[in-house]
Amino acid sequence: EDQVTQSPEALRLQEGESSSLNCSYTVSGLRGLFWYRQDPGKGPEFLFTLYSAGEEKEKERLKATLTKKESFLHITAPKPEDSATYLCAVLDGIQGAQKLVFGQGTRLTINP
Amino acid sequence: GAVVSQHPSWVICKSGTSVKIECRSLDFQATTMFWYRQFPKQSLMLMATSNEGSKATYEQGVEKDKFLINHASLTLSTLTVTSAHPEDSSFYICSAREPSQPQHFGDGTRLSIL
Description:
The complex is a heterodimer. Helix content of chain A is 0%, strand content 57%.
């Protein structure tokens, strides 16, 4: 069964202090790796999809990268509004019966 | 971008009543919709998957007679929590997607059963 492990569980940074979040996965065949951002009391907001090792995607201060075993979400010069829980998920199952398998998330806090 | 609307955002009701939650895709046709449950400081737990016009597929341990799911159109799915009890109190989130597209989530419904 596909598994997703995120680290660290929680991370506190100062504004402007760059860092990376990790998502390790074990799958029989990667059909997609997804990053979402979730604010307290809200549903997850889609950020990125990655499909193959070596792929990278960027959005503002965020950059997601993918290898055969893990994905990183790099945060460059973060601001307090980047504080949220970041969720990683992989697509599991066969066509027509696919579902997301989520990691436990990383709670990111950016202090001003 | 793809927008999913979930209603209500918050509901409080007495034990024994049934509660219906709606999930709508506003600007796309959702062939598949998903219902999740989330406990505080935990990740999302998939409850069921529904394809338009078909019966929902429930995850192991989820009571289908307790959590009724209807996906009658390409833009609307409903989750009804029947005879709700305090242990059903939780944060329920729906998501929807088109084929070969990522899932987009609603903003969740906080259900409190007294």
